[in-house]
Amino acid sequence: MTGGTILAMLVKRHGKSRATRPSGVHRTGGKLMHMVMVICGGFMLLATFALFGKLWGGDAAGISTAIRAFIPVWLLITLVNMWVGVTQAGYTYSQEAPILLLNFAIPAAVAITLVGVVLKA
User: Fold this and answer.
1) Assigned domain for 19 exists
2) pLDDT of residue 38
3) Is 75 helix (H, G, I), strand (E, B) or coil?
4) CA distance readout (Å), 30 to 15, 22, 55
5) With contact defined as beta carbons under 8 Å apart, do 28 and 15 qualify?
6) How many Cβ atoms sit within 10 Å of the Cβ of residue 58?
7) Which of 56, 113, 55, 46 is nearest to 77 (CA)?
8) Which of 31, 65, 66 is nearest to 45 (CA)?
9) Are 8 and 90 in contact (CB under 8 A)?
């Protein structure tokens, strides 16, 4: 799946009106903004894990261990975000799956890259 395909799915999804919205209310950027906030929250959580790894470990091994611990915690958080999207916001699993992928993958990829950088230093 290419970036253009994911973006096209997001744009298509935002254009749909949900039955739970009051008439006349149309939010095209609501879900996209929510994704940006979730991803930024992931980066803040990653920084928190790295900071505690430095404080408790004191060396590169402690930081990399803490960053590795971030990945399953972040997966759990993004799965809960998907569950809320399906059960509370009215989206389907097929609509939420690409959102889950992006929300999880971007901070996780940065975390994996940071582990490599920290261990080389």
Assistant:
1) no
2) 94
3) helix
4) 11, 15, 37
5) yes
6) 10
7) 46
8) 66
9) no
Q: Is 24 left (phi over 0), alpha (psi -120 to 50) or beta?
A: left
Domain of residue 80: give its range: 28-120
Residue 35 domain flag: yes
Q: How many domains does the chain have?
A: 1
Q: Mapped to the 3 state alphabet, what secondary structure does 65-106 carry? A: HHHHHHHHHHHHHHHHHHHHHHHCCCCCHHHHHHHHHHHHHH
Q: Is the residue at 84 inside a domain?
A: yes
Q: Measuring CA to CA, which residue among 51, 30, 55, 22 is closest to residue 114?
A: 51
Mean pLDDT by 10 residues, the chain (121 residues): 55 50 50 90 95 88 92 96 91 91 96 90 71
- Residue 58: φ, ψ to 5°: 80, -5
